Every structure is written in structure tokens, then in C-alpha cells.
Amino acid sequence: MTPESNQPGVSRETQRRSVGGMRFPGGASDGAQTETTASEGIGWSPVVQEGRKTTDALHSDAAQLPRPDRRRIMTVANQKGGVGKTTSTVNLAAALAVQGLNVLVVDLDPQGNASTALGVEHQSGVPSVYELLLGNVGVSDVAARSAQSERLDCVPATIDLAGAEVELVTMVAREARLREALTPEVLDELDYDYVLIDCPPSLGLLTVNALVAAHEVVIPIQCEYYALEGLGQLLNNIELVQSHLNPNLGISTVLLTMYDGRTKLAEQVTAEVRGYFGERALRTVIPRSVKISEAPGYGQTILGYDPGSRGSMSYLDAAREIAERGTERETA
Ligand code: ATP
Ligand code: MG
């Protein structure tokens, strides 16, 4: 990774365009949308909109973010379901990408929601994170360019991943399969500044693999009743991984999601989270917004779906905060 290659418009894009075996017709560069068929994924297909600008083009006036001194690998984890892990992964990734950084999303959830939101094919049989964990393929064989941005790739998850948790149990170095696939050499060659890993809502082997592969944990917390319930279990697991498998791991970022400023509850949860996590809780909070929840239905992030919306702005702000904080790491 050379700092020179961060200059706007330098050939990094050209170099990266060949990454991955799968490209969508038209790709991100000409505004064409993903040509997804009804057989896509687990019976789901995004609505195709024609003639839309790419997310990069929609945010072409966005200020560029600094590249990190060294690549940041961030695992987005919370074993609680529906707290905004996937939404935060894909929107932060898109926000980093439209602000000039090269980003890889690794979808580590058999639900494949991150792949859907990024408009990346993930029907059974598509080369995916499953084959990556088995060690049969490399990142460049499975990373697909997202239709959202020229600087955003995604290793999709297919339903095949559902069996992986069981299959991994008998494998050598079962907790480190993802780390072995995401070697610095491979990621240097592909020139990613950020790698964001979207975890399933469990603390099983897939999440452990994500924690072992990462430098940082990002914990999304929904501003709701019982927001902090179960968090102790996540923190224990992070500590276990730190002490046995990955001493470099730290909780760097806590992101409050689905914030509704009209409620006292949101305020209370925010105060509690800030009290516990201090500076690690981002100043930016993500508002509850229907637009944010609608975007994946169009195979888009909120940045592409409604670029000027509060949701879009909040993810741009959160990404900026993360990038500007640099690689400062604290332990759990
Ligand atoms: P899972 O544990 O199933 O993987 P998750 O933690 O990844 O879930 P998401 O899928 O990101 O959570 O979000 C859960 C639901 O909440 C989704 O329907 C999503 O569209 C919606 N959602 C997420 N963030 C927001 C928001 N800021 N405003 C409104 N709806 C949101
Ligand atoms: Mg999810």
C-alpha cells in the first residue's frame, strides 16, 4: 500500500477494477444497476431502478477522508438480533468508499443481508465467504464489486454458510480460518483501506472467526429497552478472544442506532452507553428512519437510495468520525 496511490484519480481504480472473478454488467461506473434475477439469494430480489446515478457520483462533492496509517479490519458484532449490525456495516462501508477510501465488506452471516444491501449476487453456488473459510479460494476469487461504488467490494455470503458453523468444528485452526484468508499480503495487493466484517446474531464460530481476524470491534447498540442486555456476554467473548487468540483486538467503536430523539428512552440509553464506553461511543448517532430500512429493498445503501437524507448524513458523519479517530485502539 503506497500513500501516493491515495491521490484522487490515480490509477488505483484501474488497478482494482480487475479484482474479483464476478462483475456485474455495467458495474458501478456507468450507473447501471445490478441485473439480479428472481432466483437471487434466499428467494429475494432487489428492485432494479434504471438510469440512477452511482452512489459515488451522488456524493462526488464529499470531502475525502484520510487513509489510515495501516489497514483497519473492523468486526461489527452484537449477538443480539436486529440491532443494526448489517445496516451499519453496509452504510459505513459505503460512506467510507464515497469519501475516497477502498473498502471490503465481508458478509459473514448466512442470511446474506449485507450482500443484498450492496447489490451483490449471493444465491447458492456463487463463490462466497464459505469457500474462503474452507481455504479453497482467495479473496480476489470471491470479492465482487458492489454496484454501489467503484471503491467498494463485498465477499458475499450464501446460504451455504449456514452449514459452516458445524463444519468448522472439526477443522484445523477453526477459529482462525478467516484471518488466514485475510492476510496482509493479499489485502495489500487488493489495496483495501478498511475491511468491515458483518457478523450473524450469535457468538458462535463465525463470530469468533471475525473477532480473530480483526483489529477492532464495532458494537452497534439499538436505542431500545434492554439495549445493554446480553452485552456482558459479548464483552466476555471479546476478552476471551483477546487473551487466547488475538491480543491485538480492541473495542474501538460503539454506534448508537435507531435513535429517536423524541423519546426519553433514547436519551437514557445514550447516557448509559456513554457512561460505560466513554469516548468509544461515537458522537454521531444514527436516527431511526424509514428510508434507512427501505434502502436494502432496492439493493442499495441509504447513501445511494436517499443521499441527502438524515440517515445518509449520519452514516457519512459516523464514517468521518471513525476515519479521523485513526487507529487509536483501546481494550475492552
Ligand atoms: P441480524 O441480527 O438479524 O443480523 P442486524 O443486527 O444486522 O440484524 P439490521 O438487519 O441491520 O440488524 O437491522 C434490523 C432491522 O432494522 C432491519 O429491518 C433494518 O432495515 C432496520 N433498521 C436498521 N437501522 C435502522 C434505522 N436507523 N432506522 C430504521 N430502521 C432501521
Ligand atoms: Mg445482520
Automatic annotation (TrEMBL):
It comes from the Bacteria. Pfam families: AAA_31 (PF13614). Residues 72-251 form the AAA domain. InterPro entries: AAA_dom, DNA_Partitioning_ATPase, P-loop_NTPase. Residues 1-46 are annotated as: Disordered. Belongs to the ParA family. May play a role in septum formation. This is Chromosome partitioning protein.
